[in-house]
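Write out the 3D structure for:
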Amino acid sequence: MAAPSTPLFISTTTLHSILSHKTLISHFQSTLPNATVSLSTPPRHSHSTSQTSTLLLMPSFSTSSSLPYIGVKLVTSHPQNSSINLPGIHACYTLFSSITGQTLALFDATELTLYRTSSISAVASFYLSKNDAHVLVMVGSGNLSPHLITAHLSVRPSINRVIIWNRTAEKAATLADKLRRENRFKGVEFESNGCLDDVIGFADIVSCATNSEIELVKGEKLKEGVHVDLVGSFKQTMKECDDETIRRGRVFVDNEIAMEEAGELVGAFERGVISKDDVCGNLVELIKGEKFGRENDKEITVFKSVGSGVVDLLTAQLVYETVRDQTQHIS
């Protein structure tokens, strides 16, 4: 089908009208295995623009007839924005045809990133968390946190209690109150707690989305059978859990770059807590059944994601093709 001559601008409003965590989770499960073979994804560029801020450039491209795209995401990370009530992450995405090189679509990719990151965590949870998980502890209450909660609930509808923790207790309480008032979460109790050590032991799933450079999740506090989802760190100086969490868990990653970038893993390797060979597998291997996920109800599983251009492009593909087909149908 011919590409539109004028690039489509896909706004956040349009994105929300098309995407759901359930559809994106399903899209990843069906497309990721083949996409990792046909897509080239160079290492992302990471540049410090100040002592606290980062610019990321994430390209990915393919000449496959089923995925004829080139995509580039530009991301800025400004954690200090929380003090002025702005998101810490902003992003834009450009999608090109890999056949003609023409620009196909421009996205406000801030929300695209939130959807894809949370949905990847949920795909991992599908293979690694207990089927009857009841309690989710959400570490962090930024813009990604409600997406992670929604995504985890999508694959584990047995969850009936969500406890939110944040360094600033009021932010956790505000998010819990907001989610409590939303009609889409039937039968789920939302609460906040000011002491993570006091509640972490209740969790069947712990999901972390922070910019922490000190460990927050302490492995000695975790109960048997918990699944730990680590999303926040993308630099070697960042970490959301301690070595004991890594030592106790069967560790999986979204992709191999996590073993070079994630502070929790790099530090554990350096200190001899585990070796790279001890990492049990990646997300594609789990989806394809080449590696086994959870093997019993007592083991602790850990999933560390740092993101990749592959999942950005697959998310952009789903949104672009839906908008393109709707536009052509109307015309």
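The chain is about 35% helix and 20% strand.
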